[in-house]
Every structure is written in structure tokens, then in C-alpha cells.
Design goal:
With 131 residues, the chain is mostly helical. The protein has helices at residues 2-8, 13-28, 34-52, 63-77, 81-99, 106-121.
Amino acid sequence: MLGKSIAAYPENVFAEHALARLRLRIAASDDTDEPTAKRLIQDAVSALNRLDARDQTLLDEYPLVTLSFFHIHALLKRGQSDQATRAARDYLSRLNYMLKRVSADNMTRTAIEQLTIFLATGDWRPQREAS
């Protein structure tokens, strides 16, 4: 349904963000096979990075925060810890840069804290929605 909404209204950044988030959640599911998970992760990360490059005032949630929670979780669930660590470093750097341009909401602060803990200890505590 979200795919149809995006096709009909390609400027609907909310639907695109929601679909990318859903793809990452499905990719992290134990019921999803590896080739499908890989494709879902690639599609979602591409969409969220594209959205992140846009004007942040158009969105009610930051795509970078979604990447921080759901991409890292999906990679770890798929046994890709080295890739998760690289992505976490990138997202943490980008979030800290973002804080210089926009005010941080609670989810942004939580994402920064979660990524910092993960990078320091290797301990990942998924958001309730991510698991």
C-alpha cells in the first residue's frame, strides 16, 4: 500500500520514510531470507539517505535517526557486525553534525546515546519498535 502511495504521490516524503522503515524491520525479521533482507536493506538505506539530504523541516522524523536505530539493528540481526560498526560510526558523526544545524529532539538524543554505547561496548539495545 505504501508503494502505491509513493507511486501516486512521489513527493510524499512521509510515505517514503515509512516504507523504508518497514523494509528495515522486515529485513531484521527471522522469517526473511538473506537475499530478500539484503535487497530490503539496500532499498531502505538508499531511500533514507536520499531523504536525509533533503530539507529536514519537511519531515516529522529524521531519516538519520531511523537509520541509526533500524539499519544497525537489521545488520546485527543478519550477523553483519563489522558493517554495523562502520554504519554506526558514520551515523553518529552525521547526527553530531546535524545537531549543529537543528535542535535535537528526544529521539535524536536517544539515537546518539544508543550509537555511542554500541561503539564503546558492542552492546546493542534495540528500540522496542526495532525488535
